[in-house]
Amino acid sequence: LFSAVELAPRDPILGLNEQFNADPNPAKVNLGVGVYFDDAGKLPLLACVKAAEQQLTDAAKPRGYLPIDGIAAYDKAVQGLVFGSFADGQAALAAGRVATVQALGGTGGLKVGADFLKKLNPGAKVLISDPSWENHRALFTNAGFPVETYAYYDAANRGLNFAGMLADLQAAAAGTIVVLHACCHNPTGYDITPSQWDEVIAVLKARGLVPFLDMAYQGFGDGIAEDGAVIRQFLAAGVESFFVATSFSKSFSLYGERVGALSVVCASKDEAARVLSQLKITIRTNYSNPPTHGAQVVATVLDTPALRAQWEDELAGMRVRIKQMRQLLADKLVAAGVKQDFSFITRQRGMFSYSGLNKAQMERLRSEFGVYGVDSGRICVAALNTRNIDGVVAAIAKVV
Ligand code: PLP
Ligand code: TYF
Q1: Pocket-forming residues, ligand 1, beta carbon under 6 Å
Q2: Domains along the chain?
Q3: Which of 86, 94, 301, 330 has the CA that lies 20 to 30 A from 236?
Q4: Given a cut of 90, is residue 12 above it in pLDDT?
Q5: DSSP states of 13-53 as a string?
Q6: Is 86 helix (H, G, I), strand (E, B) or coil?
Q7: What is the secondary structure of 221-261 as a DSSP string?
Q8: Closest to 213 measured CA to CA, from 142, 287, 155, 132
Q9: Could you say which of 197, 214, 311, 332 is catalytic?
Q10: Residue 44: pLDDT over 90
Q11: For residues 248 and 234, what is the distance between their CA atoms, to the nearest angstrom?
Q12: Angle between the 194-207 and 224-236 helix axes, to the nearest 10 degrees?
């Protein structure tokens, strides 16, 4: 049966982890996968998460099947977080225009949305940014869509090719699904500005494109409200229908619990009810219904004022530490005598930096110095700390 099965290539990012784990170099540093580590190099367990888990254990309940669309209080909490802090969002929620389902991480939200869209509009094309998170291409391809790119990164100028992005969106056929990073672009670290978002939104609207926002890093850029403001802009501009995938993997440091959601904004309450019924079929025929624990933890934190405040503090702590590492990295590269300008690192946001280093340099960083980043030049700034940064700076200084 399996004699003709080919060996699939490993995930370029997750595969790096295996290589890292096998490396005997005691000074090795993993800047590959997008995971936040604290200054001690440890994966944090947030205090708000621990407290919520304690509460849940103290009042332990049996584990029946969840509804297909997940825990109602969780879906409501997600809506509150994504749409509830500004008037246009509150109005959309009050009008019943938003269908939200619990999903298996942000990836699950993307996948449920992709499968639903494929049934709805099988002839559509998908556009992702050039470059994008590799799984965007894989996931929409697997859902049956042709996937192409819109211009985004400008390697020569270490910034964005915004004119190219607008031109590509302008040239897209009506109904094209456009995947957009809501904030903290993975892998480049470059986000468009609020006024550039307005221009993008105007084109999406005028051309009848289908926006699919991926929000995997809310709170890692400038703050929870600041990073979420793009949703307000879509609603304020009168975009009737769009998709938002939410991930709590990073913002709650709950990677392994697979906590995420998909929200679909619709033109009316009636539309939202019909869309929800279709999302539920997609879920039911894939994995029936989602798991309980992670969503219960997140709902408990978001709905308990003291825990919510603690979460906001802890998330701010992660955000501030990453910004400090950006500044430190840029400063230390100058201090190490590196002539090349790396100040762009402080203008990028979120967990990643497109360092501008090429594949050969990234390979040298790995083989000679045990510094693991992605071949594209992407490094995870959120894995730098005061102990490993000097080694990383010295290594980069040697390869540039
Ligand atoms: N979208 C982007 C842009 C990401 O970087 C990630 C990273 O993991 C995800 C989605 C997936 O998140 P999750 O782990 O919650 O599935
Ligand atoms: O980009 C990253 O590193 C994270 C983690 O297939 C990740 O988003 C990477 C690859 C993948 C799933 C998650």
Answers
A1: 34, 105-107, 133, 181, 186, 214, 216, 247, 249, 260
A2: 14-45+308-399 (3.90.1150.10), 63-303 (3.40.640.10)
A3: 301
A4: no
A5: THHHHHHHHH---TT-EE-SS-----TTS-----HHHHHHH
A6: coil
A7: SS-HHHHHHHHHHHHHTT---EEEEEE-TTTTT-GGG-EEE
A8: 132
A9: 214
A10: yes
A11: 22
A12: 30
Query: Mean pLDDT score of the chain, rounded to an integer?
Result: 97
For 290, the token pair is 């989602």
Q: Is 332 a catalytic residue?
A: no
Instruction: Determine the Cα–Cα distance for residues 92 and 268; give it in Å rounded to an integer.
Output: 9
- Rg of the chain over Cα atoms, rounded to whole angstroms, equals 21
Q: What is residue 10's predicted lDDT score, i.e. its pLDDT?
A: 84
pLDDT per position as a tens digit, 99-108: 999 999 999 9
The alpha carbon of 153 and the centre of ligand 2 are apart by a number of angstroms equal to 19
Q: Active site includes 130?
A: no
In 3D space, the residue among 373, 312, 315 whose CA is nearest the CA of residue 34 turns out to be: 373
Give the pLDDT confidence of 158-182 residue by residue, as tens digits. Answer: 999 999 999 999 999 999 999 999 9
Could you give the CA distance from residue 256 to residue 287 in angstroms, rounded to a whole number? 17
Q: Tokens 């040239």, residue?
A: 171
Distance 338 CA to ligand 1 centre (A): 33
Strands 147-151 and 126-130: parallel
Going by pLDDT thresholds of 50, 70 and 90, the confidence category of residue 186 is very high
pLDDT the model gives residue 11 = 83
Which residue in this structure is represented by tokens 């290594």?
A: 395
